[in-house]
Design a protein that fits this description.
It is a single chain. With about 350 residues, the protein is an alpha/beta fold. It has two domains: about 180 residues; about 170 residues. It is built from twelve helices and 16 strands. Helix 5 runs parallel beside helix 6 and helix 9 packs across helix 10. The two termini are about 35 Å apart. The relative contact order is 0.15. Pfam families: IstB_IS21. This is DUF2075 domain-containing protein. GO terms for molecular function: ATP binding. It comes from Pseudoduganella plicata.
């Protein structure tokens, strides 16, 4: 299960967010490791204990499943599932789309307004809000919940249809409460992530954990067998939770098969957006074992150790989106980060785009 902090362990900026009343909107922004998902879960639990009808919404199924594992009796769903289900209640057929999975938010809001639809919950909590479309927040303020709590970090945007912090505020959210401390990464890992940090309005978070002495590493592997051997060796010697981030969906099954052959009886899970609905509910990412995911499925998650293989498409970083992708991926690791050169070798330009050897050993 997710290691939620006790209320006594929250620092002042986190407690400020936690203690906000539930009869008003709240907007919280913070970097990786600042406690956004933990606060979303704690807020949902507290609101439910006070008799509120609560729904927690996020972008992907894996993060929704993680929240569900913590929140018995509280609805935790993806944005698509939440909005499309509520639209079907209008008895107007399928939700209008501009293209597949891209909703026509003007029509959606107009239809809800015409039908006089009421909010299906008292408090709607949104995690990783930067990865949801701006139109969703216009809908959510009016029809999604009585009041909203939104957690976001614009520097971790991972998809094209996203909302800026300005978009979220323009929907009717107040000025944000800002979280500034990184409680997840060691300083060594934080420095690697910061190499890719690009932001006009925010400096990198302050890593509050002590130095570990373990410098993140770049390793070369020739094939999936070699990578599986390295991962299995790490697990057999130090256990813990290991996240392996690959670039292509088909690669998850290939690597999982290799790992299962090396670790019979061990927990080795694989997940992509193509996985069967409900499969994510059985994956306990915080338990000892290995989870193989794609880069798009890992947002909001964290692991004791991360093997980052899926960097081909992001390096060398030429766009803000690519910098944000690498920043987010590196920040998934708590204690150990290994960047993988292979199975397809990185080019010299891609290797040169990585942090220097004093931050990422070769």
């Amino acid at each position: 299960m997710m290691n939620l902090p006790k209320l006594d362990d929250l620092i002042d900026e986190q407690m400020t967010a936690f203690e906000q009343p539930f009869d008003q909107h709240m907007f919280v922004v913070g970097p990786p490791g600042s406690g956004k998902t933990a606060l979303a879960v704690l807020r949902a639990r507290q609101a439910s204990n006070e008799g509120k009808r609560v729904v927690l919404v996020t972008k992907n199924r894996m993060l929704a499943a993680l929240a569900k594992q913590q929140l018995e009796g509280i609805r935790c769903v993806t944005m698509n599932a939440y909005v499309s289900t509520e639209y079907m209640r209008l008895d107007r057929g399928y939700i209008p789309e501009l293209r597949r999975y891209v909703y026509d938010w003007d029509r959606v809001c107009a239809d809800f307004a015409e039908d006089g639809a009421k909010a299906p919950c008292d408090h709607l909590i949104v995690d990783e809000g930067q990865n949801l479309p701006a139109g969703f927040f216009r809908w959510a303020i009016a029809f999604g919940g009585g009041f909203l709590t939104v957690f976001a970090d614009e520097n971790q945007t991972t998809n094209d249809e996203h909302a800026s912090l300005s978009d979220i505020r323009a929907a009717g959210l107040p000025a944000p409460i800002r979280l500034t401390r990184n409680h997840r990464n060691t300083p060594e890992i934080a420095r690697v992530a910061e190499h890719f940090h690009r932001a006009e309005h925010a400096i990198p978070a302050i890593a509050v954990r002590p130095r570990s002495g373990d410098i993140p590493e770049l390793i070369a592997v020739a094939d999936w067998d070699a990578l599986a051997t390295r991962i299995a060796y790490r697990f057999q010697n130090q256990a813990g939770s290991i996240g392996v981030i690959v670039g292509r969906k088909d690669d998850t099954d290939v690597l999982r098969a290799n790992l299962l052959a090396l670790l019979p009886g061990g927990r080795v899970d694989a997940y992509t957006s193509n996985s069967e609905p409900g499969q994510e509910d059985a994956i306990l990412t915080y338990e000892p074992g290995i989870t193989v995911l794609t880069d798009k499925a890992v947002i909001g998650l964290e692991f004791d150790a991360v093997f980052l293989q899926g960097v081909q498409d992001a390096l060398p970083c030429r766009t803000l989106a690519q910098f944000r992708q690498m920043y987010m991926l590196c920040a998934r690791a708590k204690h150990m980060l290994t960047v993988v050169n292979g199975v397809t070798p990185l080019s010299k330009a891609q290797i040169d785009a990585l942090p220097p050897p004093n931050l990422l050993t070769r």
